[in-house]
Backbone:
């Protein structure tokens, strides 16, 4: 059967069995809409079926093996505009691979259209969004989880992409799993601990990485709303300080917002399937191009704050953050 995944300007066909359609849909919603309908021949198709031997234009692409995946290989037909997943063989891993390809193609298309990839996450409360931006171990994930426990909607924990549309900054998220370090879990709000304690379906929880972190798919955030993008962004740059008795928010200038964004530029769009995306016409963007995009970003209407906190009082930051959103 054929179905189509959509997200704004992005459309891709999927060829699969009916049961697989429902499994793929669970992986993609709410970031992508998936519907059963006739193939759109103008767009590429991802197929879970094996290519026929009679196809004379196939060429193979092999990616580096991933964690828990011994072999990743695709057969491409430009004539049919079809990507066949020949490895891995396991059907659940094929479905996971479909989800990743669609995620990364959409992100690569966003970047090609002027998006800026940032090492940070996004949450939403009402009409406002919060971009939580920071280096590893800065408290980014902890802050996002505290905001979720405080009633915020989830967009993404990593791989945020910010774009300019009609002189407004928009933040986009993706269906990437949230990784929470095990040494952090004990300090989290009880509501988040309850979510983390559940059994989660991400296959990474069955690899050696599970010794260090728990991996949660966005759809497994029980009783928490998940959405794909946000406008009216406020930027928060967290940092941990063991001597900080209570969290404080320090306003920063537009110049400093831009400098912090530059510091946290991180393009992961080509990390998982670089050969495949290359074959589909996507190219890595030069850092100087990203710097130029950041220089032109209209952040005059956006607030920015440094958040100073320690791990034991991170939930106390939530009401302070809510105050600056009004």
Residues:
């Amino acid at each position: 059967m054929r179905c189509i995944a959509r997200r704004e300007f992005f459309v891709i066909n999927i060829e699969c069995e009916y049961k697989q359609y429902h499994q793929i849909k669970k992986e993609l919603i709410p970031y992508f809409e998936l519907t059963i309908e006739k193939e759109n021949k103008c767009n590429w198709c991802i197929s879970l079926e094996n290519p026929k031997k009679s196809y004379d234009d196939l060429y193979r692409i092999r990616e580096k093996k991933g964690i828990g995946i011994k072999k990743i290989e695709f057969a491409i037909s430009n004539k049919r505009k079809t990507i066949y997943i020949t490895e891995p063989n396991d059907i659940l891993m094929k479905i996971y691979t479909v989800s990743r390809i669609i995620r990364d193609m959409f992100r690569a298309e966003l970047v090609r259209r002027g998006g800026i990839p940032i090492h940070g996450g996004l949450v939403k409360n009402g009409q406002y969004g919060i971009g939580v931006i920071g280096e590893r171990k800065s408290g980014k994930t902890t802050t996002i989880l505290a905001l979720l426990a405080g009633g915020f909607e989830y967009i993404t924990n990593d791989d945020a992409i910010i774009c300019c549309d009609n002189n407004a900054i928009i933040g986009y998220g993706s269906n990437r799993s949230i990784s929470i370090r095990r040494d952090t879990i004990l300090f989290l709000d009880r509501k988040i601990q309850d979510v983390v304690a559940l059994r989660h379906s991400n296959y990474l929880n069955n690899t050696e990485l599970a010794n260090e972190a728990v991996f949660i798919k966005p759809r497994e955030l029980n009783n928490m709303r998940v959405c794909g993008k946000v406008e009216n962004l406020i930027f928060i740059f967290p940092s941990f300080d063991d001597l900080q008795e209570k969290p404080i928010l320090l306003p920063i200038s537009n110049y400093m917002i831009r400098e912090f964004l530059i510091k946290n530029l991180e393009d992961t769009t080509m990390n998982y399937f670089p050969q495949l995306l290359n074959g589909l016409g996507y190219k890595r963007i030069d850092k100087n191009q990203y710097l130029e995009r950041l220089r032109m970003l209209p952040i005059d209407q956006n607030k920015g704050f440094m958040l100073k906190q320690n791990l034991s009082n991170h939930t106390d930051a939530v009401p302070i953050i809510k105050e600056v959103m009004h």
